[in-house]
Amino acid sequence: MIDGGSGANTLIGPNLKRTWNITAHDAGTVNNVTFQRVGNVTGGKRADTFVLSDGATLSGGVDGGKGLNTLDMSAQNRDVVVNLALGTATAIGGRVVNISTAVGGNLNSILVGDGTTNSLQGGAGRNLLIGGGGSVQVTGGAGDNILIGGITPYDIEPAALDAL
Questions:
Q1: Which end of the chain, N or C, is surrounded by fewer C-beta atoms within 10 Å?
Q2: Which residues lie below 8 Å from residue 38, measured CB to CB, with a gap of 6+?
Q3: Which residues are CB-contacts of 154 (< 8 A; sequence separation ≥ 6)?
Q4: In 3D, which of 63, 91, 59 has the Cα closest to residue 75?
Q5: How distant, in Å, are the alpha carbons of 25, 36, 49, 54 from that of 21?
Q6: 149 falls in which pLDDT band (50, 70, 90)?
Q7: Would you say the pTM of this structure is higher than 0.85?
């Protein structure tokens, strides 16, 4: 068990492919190691996947580190917004960086790429997926979908995206 204690804490993963399960507020597991009171998580040099359980949150941010990293919000039973261009995501209080794949939640999802190589995968509800330029793969989910491979003037305007 790793206990970050008080203050702003960061847990940095090994340079191996890992799945980070964020299961509660600033708590979860990585490679069978449990952690709590850790607001920031950082992956290593290989592909990392950050999975947020329904209701889980981080007070800090997610840094995928090197490799092709995934932010998986598919367990979220609420509307989800992941804007890689702005470095923001629902349930994450700090910056979201070095993420190449974003997966939407069970309700409505807005996913925006950051102009690099991205994969955006819609969730079960209605989805707005905006590639953001760069090499991008957009995949709609089970509900109604609006898929935009390029950029829009609204990519960095959260209020405008919410209005859609």
A1: N
A2: 2, 4, 9, 10, 11, 26, 27
A3: 130, 160, 161, 164
A4: 91
A5: 11, 12, 8, 11
A6: confident
A7: yes
